Each structure stands twice: as structure tokens, then as C-alpha cells.
From TrEMBL, chain A:
This is Twin-arginine translocation pathway signal. InterPro entries: TAT_signal (IPR006311).
UniProtKB/TrEMBL annotation, chain B:
Pfam families: GMC_oxred_C (PF05199), GMC_oxred_N (PF00732). The keyword Oxidoreductase applies. GO terms for molecular function: flavin adenine dinucleotide binding; oxidoreductase activity, acting on CH-OH group of donors. This is Choline dehydrogenase-like flavoprotein. Residues 391-507 form the Glucose-methanol-choline oxidoreductase C-terminal domain. It comes from Mycoplana azooxidifex. Belongs to the GMC oxidoreductase family. InterPro entries: FAD/NAD-bd_sf, GMC_OxRdtase_N, GMC_OxRtase_C. The keyword Flavoprotein applies. Keywords: FAD, Flavoprotein, Oxidoreductase. Residues 85-305 form the Glucose-methanol-choline oxidoreductase N-terminal domain.
Length: 180, 523
């Protein structure tokens, strides 16, 4: 089972700031520790069971490159791709598909790998080369549901979701447009 | 109290499917004192249990049995196993439909005569006229509580409609209003009025939108003459040596095969399952399938020429609030070949939630162009195009050569390719839709491709002559007197209108005919 966990912001938990500095991974860069990918502010992490944590970190980056919403934090992308780890745990062929697919992205990116490319345009250029591959299709096809179907994310889009329990919109602005 | 009928009772009318056609026919016959068994493949899910969540509702209601697709349509590439977005549950697709209830226009009943021969199209005139159907349209509108008919007020316009109407005015369109909708604008028929909840496609949790699930079916059951058997998936219709159909073989809720005898059998499983069932019922006497002497069973599959236009504005619209289909423009619905195509199209507002917007806006799309479109969601307005598509013989529901379902029956393989007329019409509608939104200040517009089909039509078409189609003007098969088709697969041509009102009207009319024929002892 893949887990996303909230990390307590205590100095004892997780990696020390010194450790982070030593690894050269401060800033908006995901940290790999053991079998987990940890956010730079250490507010959350994702533990993997089947995929390499490095692979998971790349999937999170890849997910953002596929559906780039700059005001949406990484956490939502991590939640969206964690199902790839779960599926990889149940199906060795799927694990192979993802691991080989990510390794291919790294190889195409050259030294420093996919995550090492600083500009989105450079990463997207690689993705355009592989967009018809089963790997990319498997990741994108799952992501379009697993990312946009997160209720916690709907306020970002201004979508209010379920409305029956609130009596619909009859008295809550179904016709409140004023700018026309 | 619903009447239970014995499997060996050969006096009953068996109806396969409980949607707009089957559910209505079942009630109409029961009201006349005729004993009816409706076999419904799906479960009975009452409206309180519908879910205001797009994917969860889809899992609850959608017909997800294995299907394959082929042909040039984009649905086949993006949703290869989901040709249609229809429902497997008691009430059928009347749980999911948006409620638009329009009469087919007079000239559309005579498509071949009025459009002339169109190359590559298999056009034909209906064997009935608007005048013949008008009394039944009127009964159906009254039954369903269609707004703007029978003195019923229109629904109020939501934000999406207001943007649409402002654009229509700017373009000079004259026929724009909040539609003729089978959604209560005030309490009626023991059902409450629309609360503008915005999940029409997910089943109306108020029961404000007409569905056979909570109108026709309970009314029929109350007569004691109608039994609805849910979770009963029909696999085959059988016949005797004379060629008369005698019984229906179905898998019950436990997957066990049962056989229900019948005096008359009416097929109403929607335009994919209905022809599939006739084809799968092939026998030594009917090697090409039942009622298929014309070779037209499964052919002429139509799905309406559809598409959507979404547009983003500087300021919020919140188009998901309120009725999903909240208004219509009918100015383009006429036949005006100077536009470069025959037939016409309606424009109707449409809204999707974030999950389905992501799935359908540009299937397969990704990157900044896609994501920024999604970021404009709250400021988005949208409309759906529904126009007449050309019947074509090669657009067909076929039996898959190798794949079978859990009962060993070949699965349906749904083939569709746009006719050049369909493409020309869609492009015209895209242009008009974008111009409409740009006229009210849209900063960006998206011509969105067709979704999996909800309007599935034509695969057992109605014809004057037996050689041209599968059923006669009553929906009775040309070949077998006690076998009827009672759903949208009867449609001779697609017309520009949402099909449900016509399906219901034909079912009411068919019930009169069946009752007369039974009384006369001719079936």
C-alpha cells in the first residue's frame, strides 16, 4: 500500500536541515530518503512499496509537466500518481512499464536526468517525443482522473462539487451573473 | 402491488429494457389491462441514491459492459471501449438524460424527399408524418411535463443560459429560450420542481426531471399488471417452427439462465443492445438474426452530429450551477443547403464538472494549453451541438468476431465514420458557437470533439417497404408479427432533435396498436 503522510514539523522528524544542505536539495526540490519522497518543507511525504522512490519523485515532476497548474502544490500531484506505485505492487509488468519509462526519460534528458532539466520547455520537448508510448499513455490516462478528481483540489478551479445537500443553487447563485 | 408472473405464462408481453421506450410502453400497456414483464439488465436504484459526483455516478449508472469500436470517429481512439454514454439501470438512460424534449420537424420525417439523394448516405423517408405523430407528441409532453407546452412555464435561466442568450442576441438569433424541458418548473405529477442543483446527468435526486424510474414504472406497477425484473440481462430471443417468437432467455441476478415465455416481445435495449440481441438470436430458420431479411439490422447507426463549444471569459460564470441543459437556440435547426450541408442543428447549453471537463475537453490533451483551459473553469460557459447526421450502411453495430461476454454471446463492435455532411455541419456549428461567445467577450474558445454517444439511433430502422428496414410504422418487425422494437433504434433518420420525446411518443402510439391487435386476435 502506498501511503501519503503528513509530517510533523518537529526538528527530530525526518532529515535535518544540515542533511538537506549536504544533499544539495534545498528549495523546491523533492527529497529522497529511504523508501520515501519528502517535500522540501517536510510537510508531507510519500512512501513507495514497489517503485523506486526516485522514480516516484520523477513521476510527481512528470505529472506537473503534464497538467501544469502553478498554484497547485506538489502534494496533489503526489496523491495523483501514488496509484502507480500501488498498481506496480500488484502487477510486475506495470512496475516494469513505469521504471523503464522513467529511466528512458532520464536517458533522454542526459546527465542530471529528467528532474535535472531546469526548464519545463526542455522537459516537455522530451515528453512530446514519448507521448504516444504506452508508458506516457498509462501515466496520463490515469492522471486525468486521479488528479482532477480530487475534491480538495476543486476549490482551486472554482468548482463547488456536490450541491444536493445544500438545496441546489436555486437560492445560492444559479443566476447571479452581473457582468453581462 | 407489482404483479409477479410465472416464467411459463405465455400470455404476457415481455419488454426488454425499461428506459424511455420500454418503461413508457410497459406502463401504457398495463394501464390498458395488459399483463407485462419488463426485463431490465441493470439494478433498481431509486433517485434518493443517485450521487452528485461525476465519476462515482458514472460507476453507479453507466453501461460498462465490454464493447469495441472501429471507424474514423475520434471516440474510437479516445474511448475505444466506450462508444456510448448510456445507462444500465431501471429507468435506462432517462435517469441520465438532460430533459430536452423537442418534436421532430415535418420536413425531417421526409428526409430523402426534402434533401434529395446524398452521396454515401442511406437516406429514407419515415413511413409516418408529423401530423400522425402530433397527438402522441401532445400526450407525451403532458405525461412528461414538458415546459412551454400545455401551459407549463419555462424554467428560469441560469448563468450559463444568460451568457448564451446574450450571445444569441448579438448574433441576431431569434429562437432562443430556456428550452422545452421535461423538468418541472413547478410541482407537478407528485414530483417537485427543479432546485437548480446542476447534476442532471447524474440522475436528478429531487425527481424533478422526468424518468421512467419514478413515473411510468411505479404507475404501471400500481395497476398490478406490470412486473419489472431488474438484473435480468437478456441473451437471446427464441421462436417456434412458424417463426413466431415464443420466449426470452435471460441471465438472472445470479447469472443463472432463465426463460420467460411471452405472447409478444418488445425490444427496447437502446440502439447498440437491441440490434445485438436480434443478431445474437440467429437460428437455423433465421441465420442472419431475427427480423433481418432486409439485412438492415445493426446498420445505419446514427449518433447525431455533435460537438461542444466552451469559452472562457474575463469574469466568473459558474456554469455548473443549475440545469445542465439550460437553454436552446433553434435558428439553425431548419434545412438550408446554402450553409453547405443538408439538415440542421440545435445549440443547447451544457456544463460539466471539473472531473468530466478534464476527461472530455480535449481527450488525450495535456500541457500548458490544456491546463490553462482548466484554470479558466470558473469563468467558462458552454454549449452542445446536436444536429442531424446521415445514416450510412457501413456505420453499424456488428457482432465481434471473437470476443464474447460472460454468457458466451458475441459483444457489440460499434463502427462509425462521419459523413462529409456531418463534418460540414459540425464545422459550421463550431464557427457559430465561437462567434456567439466572442460576441460577449470570450477571451478563448474551445471547439470540443463529440463525447461517447448518448443519442444512439437507427439500427433497426422503420420503413414503408420490408426491404428497406427492420420495422413498420408501428415498430412491428416486418418479418415477425409478434416481435416489436420500441426504442430509438426505430428511427429512420436522426433529425436534429434530442430523441427522447419521439421515443416516448412512439411508445404510446405502439401501445395503442399492440392493444388493438391483441383485441383483434391478430397477434
Amino acid at each position: 500500500m502506498t501511503t501519503i503522510f503528513e509530517r510533523r514539523r518537529s526538528p527530530d522528524s525526518g532529515l535535518s536541515r544540515r542533511e538537506l544542505l549536504k544533499r544539495g536539495t534545498v528549495g523546491a526540490v523533492l527529497v529522497i530518503a529511504g523508501n520515501a519522497v519528502i517535500s522540501p518543507d517536510r510537510a508531507w511525504g510519500v512512501e513507495t512499496t514497489a517503485l523506486k522512490p526516485d522514480t516516484m519523485a520523477t513521476l510527481i515532476k512528470l505529472a506537473r509537466d503534464i497538467y501544469p497548474h502553478d498554484k497547485v502544490p506538489d502534494r496533489f500531484y503526489a496523491i495523483a500518481v501514488k496509484g502507480q506505485d500501488t498498481k506496480a505492487g500488484q502487477d510486475p509488468a506495470h512496475r516494469e512499464l513505469i521504471e523503464v519509462g522513467v529511466a528512458d526519460l532520464d536517458a533522454r534528458a542526459g546527465e542530471g536526468g529528467y528532474r535535472g532539466l531546469g526548464w519545463e520547455d526542455d522537459r516537455v520537448a522530451i515528453l512530446r517525443e514519448v507521448e504516444s508510448t504506452p508508458f506516457f499513455q498509462a501515466v496520463r490516462g490515469d492522471l486525468v482522473v486521479s488528479f482532477y478528481n480530487q475534491k480538495e483540489l476543486w476549490p482551486h478551479f472554482g468548482y463547488e462539487g456536490e450541491s444536493f445537500s445544500k438545496g441546489g443553487y436555486l437560492k445560492r447563485g444559479f443566476d447571479d451573473i452581473e457582468w453581462l | 402491488m407489482a404483479a409477479p408472473y410465472n416464467l411459463n405464462d405465455d400470455s404476457v408481453v415481455v419488454i426488454i429494457g425499461s428506459g424511455a421506450g420500454g418503461g413508457t410502453l410497459g406502463n401504457e400497456l398495463a394501464q390498458k389491462g395488459i399483463d407485462v414483464v419488463i426485463l431490465e439488465a441493470g439494478a433498481r436504484i431509486e433517485y434518493e441514491d443517485f450521487i452528485n459526483d461525476e465519476w462515482d455516478s458514472f460507476a453507479q449508472l453507466a453501461w460498462l459492459d465490454h464493447r469495441t469500436t472501429g471507424g474514423g470517429w475520434r471516440v474510437s481512439k479516445d474511448f475505444p471501449n466506450l462508444p456510448a454514454w448510456i445507462v444500465k439501470a431501471v429507468g435506462g438512460t432517462t435517469t441520465h438524460w438532460a430533459g430536452a424534449s423537442l418534436r421532430i420537424q415535418e420536413h425531417e420525417f421526409k428526409a430523402l424527399s426534402n434533401y434529395g439523394k446524398v452521396e454515401g448516405a442511406n437516406l429514407l423517408d419515415w413511413p409516418i408524418t408529423l401530423a400522425e405523430l402530433e397527438p402522441y407528441y401532445s400526450k407525451a409532453e403532458d405525461k412528461m411535463g414538458v415546459t412551454r407546452t400545455h401551459g407549463i412555464e419555462g424554467l428560469p435561466g441560469n448563468n450559463n443560459f444568460k451568457v448564451f442568450k446574450a450571445g444569441a442576441d448579438k448574433l441576431g438569433y431569434k429562437e432562443c429560450h430556456t428550452g422545452r424541458m421535461a423538468i418541472n418548473s413547478a410541482d407537478r405529477d407528485d414530483r417537485m420542481s427543479c432546485q437548480q442543483t446542476g447534476f442532471c446527468f447524474q440522475g436528478c435526486k429531487w425527481g424533478a426531471k422526468w424518468s421512467t424510474l419514478y413515473t411510468e414504472i411505479p404507475k404501471g406497477e400500481a395497476t398490478g399488471r406490470l412486473e419489472v425484473r431488474p438484473n435480468s440481462h437478456v441473451v437471446k430471443i427464441e421462436h417456434d417452427a412458424s417463426g413466431k417468437v415464443t420466449n426470452v432467455v435471460y441471465a438472472d441476478k445470479d447469472g443463472k439462465l432463465q426463460s420467460q415465455k411471452a405472447r409478444i416481445i418488445c425490444v427496447a435495449g437502446n440502439s447498440i443492445e437491441s440490434p445485438r440481441l436480434l443478431l445474437n438470436s440467429a437460428s437455423a430458420k433465421f441465420p442472419d438474426g431475427l427480423a433481418n431479411s432486409s439485412g438492415q439490422v445493426g446498420k445505419n447507426y446514427m449518433r447525431h452530429t455533435t460537438g461542444s463549444v466552451y469559452a472562457v471569459f474575463e469574469k466568473p460564470v459558474h456554469f455548473y450551477r443549475g440545469t445542465t441543459m439550460a437553454g436552446i437556440i433553434q435558428d439553425e435547426a431548419g434545412h438550408d443547403p446554402s450553409r453547405g450541408f443538408v439538415g440542421g442543428y440545435e445549440m443547447e447549453t451544457l456544463a460539466l464538472g471539473v472531473p468530466f471537463m478534464a476527461a472530455f475537453l480535449d481527450p488525450g490533451g495535456w500541457g500548458r494549453s490544456f491546463a490553462s483551459a482548466m484554470d479558466g473553469y470558473a469563468n467558462t460557459a458552454g454549449l452542445w451541438i446536436v444536429g442531424e447526421d446521415m445514416p450510412q450502411e457501413q456505420n453499424a453495430v456488428k457482432l465481434h468476431a471473437t470476443l464474447k461476454d460472460q454468457y458466451g454471446m458475441p459483444i457489440p463492435d460499434v463502427w462509425f465514420t462521419d459523413h462529409p455532411n456531418d463534418v460540414a455541419m459540425r464545422n459550421h456549428a463550431y464557427k457559430q458557437g465561437q462567434a456567439l461567445y466572442e460576441a460577449v467577450g470570450a477571451t478563448r474558445a474551445f471547439p470540443t470533439p463529440p463525447y461517447p454517444s448518448t443519442h444512439n439511433l437507427g439500427t433497426n430502422r422503420m420503413s414503408e417497404k420490408a426491404q428497406d428496414g427492420v420495422v413498420n410504422k408501428w415498430g412491428q418487425t416486418h418479418d415477425i408479427k409478434n416481435l416489436f422494437v420500441s426504442d430509438g433504434s426505430q428511427f429512420t433518420t436522426g433529425a436534429a432533435e434530442n430523441p427522447t420525446l419521439t421515443i416516448v411518443s412512439l411508445a404510446i402510439r405502439q401501445a395503442d396498436y399492440i392493444a388493438d391487435q391483441m383485441n383483434a386476435g391478430s397477434i
